[in-house]
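Researcher: For the record, we're logging two predictions in this thread. I'll number them. Prediction 1 follows.
Model: Prediction 1, sequence and structure:
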Amino acid sequence: MNPRKIVIGTANFGMKYGLGYKNLNPKEIKKILSFSKKNGIRTLDTAPSYKNAFKNLRNNKIENWNIISKIPSIPKNTDNISHYVQKILFSNLKKINLSKIHTILIHDEKDILNVTKGKKILEILNHFKKEKIVKRVGCSIYDSYKVKRVIKNYDFDVIQCPYNIFDKRLVDSGLFRLLKNREINIHLRSIFLQGLLLKDKKDIPVQFKNNKKINKYYKFLEKYNLSNIEICLSELDKIEYEKVIIGVGHLNQLKDIINFNKHLNKSTNILKTKNLKLIDPRKWNYR
């Protein structure tokens, strides 16, 4: 896989995240970052909500990395949104010991869909873009069907949204093409569906045991003699995107991703679904 397209997700650098992903210890984080840098991965995705991730990043001297960070949810009773966003941005920079940041995303889609609030946030972020403190401004979206509403009201550089072998709503809805036509950079996330798609069949959580799509997924793996990583990454061959955010549980997993070269020419459309109880981790009951 082209390492320059990979963004290392850092949620589990600071907390337990996803299914079976442990909070990585500092030594493993150091190994992952060192290996990434040597192999051409230059971008990290982080957020204030990832608890100790900022501390672990700062300890690894990340000034030569491209950093994507986020503005968290704006509290309901915030009187001065511009002041709040400025405070959060500079707090982020201080915590990771940087003077500027490559990309800043509005993390809560509710703040974007509230156009009055969203435009105030974007206004202050664009100010810092002009000041060259921020290079690019964007947003993070969970539900791809909301993308159309977002780009109708905003001029973003980047949109981060889910895409994986089960969840192809972004492409099927035509919104992927719309983003490309608007020259908005597409960052894909949830390619492994928070680790669910990397699990051995015997380790699937109870709530998914009888799911028809899950069972088809494992039959598909067996039929074409594919590993979980191979089938998930093969799905990326079918679309154009700038970056994909990938969380890893250990260094060897990252090595498998970097070394991926077994591409699948078979259609996987029998696996796609719109069942939110499967494709939206916010609706899972695993925490």
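Researcher: Logged. Prediction 2.
Model: Prediction 2, sequence and structure:
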Amino acid sequence: MAATKYLKYLNVLSLFDTKRTRDIFQINPTLPTHRTEADEIHIDVFDYSPSHLEEANFYSIEPSFPFRDNNNISWINIGGIRKKDIESICTHFGVHYLILEDILSINQRPKMDEMEPVLFCLLNMLYFNEATGAVETEQISIVLGNNFVLSIQEDAHRDVFNPVREKLRVANSKLRLSGADYLCYALLDMIVDNYYLVMEKIGERIEFLEDRIIRSTNKRSLAEINALRKELIVLKRNVSPVRDLINGFLRTDSDLMEDKTHKYFKDIYDHIIQANDLAESYRDMMINLQDLYLSNVNLKMNEVMKVMAIVTCLLAPATVIGGIFGMNFDKLPYIHNEHGFFIAATLMILAPIIMVYIFRKRGWF
């Protein structure tokens, strides 16, 4: 593992960096889109029926056009977004201009729209970066049409759809025997299932942090609590709206959705409700961790003050005795006694010993 991963911990203040906060909160979808266009696009096509499967890979948009008009189910997955290419494929497949704008936008809230002749949804795939401990997002747009599904994602090199691809390669699988609406369900289901993998990683971080705070409390613990709370904000912001998105598919009367497919979307709805509840639980755990941290800090401070108070009490008799016999009076008891020093020193030692015995007997320490 790279040593640079731990360099940020050398400076505790670097853990309180506000750049991540700016990335999370400085989002304004009403501003003009300034998307950096991909250098290249990668197009995967799965054209299938119960007895037929054709896989194709392209690096330009035009070769995917013929798949619209055949009698098979076509899944066209576009990795990388370039405005010209997205406009071209949306025009060819009859996708409304407003949907095109949503596809090209950034930092959109997950949502579902019904604009004839297609159903459209936009949400984020989530990934957990082990090196930085951050929740990374990738916007994906899914267009469900008559016998086709378009999925348009920002990154051409990663997604969560490999299990779907493997199922499509199996003859007579549920995916191969079903329509395009079931394929849309399968894609959404994989995205939601991957949310749980990300949440599991965050849960492990929370559990590890809780154990460490119980054992020892330091400034880095507070910094990590702060960092984890930011990642939970990202998680909650992306997971919570998906409930309304799935509910949109359940309520639609579109002919693109078969009645038998509704039960599968109901299953996703149940999963996203559970994911929301889990995110809320993590949020409560982080609040409890912060309270635990503050309690440990106060406890440590109380222990320090307790020790200082005991030391002060034990030194008080010696201070009093030394102060009395240090007064500038001509006549003081034992001031000219040859054993006066030893008597005073004995009292100074004996008094703290008696006080320690009394304190221990009362259970003060």
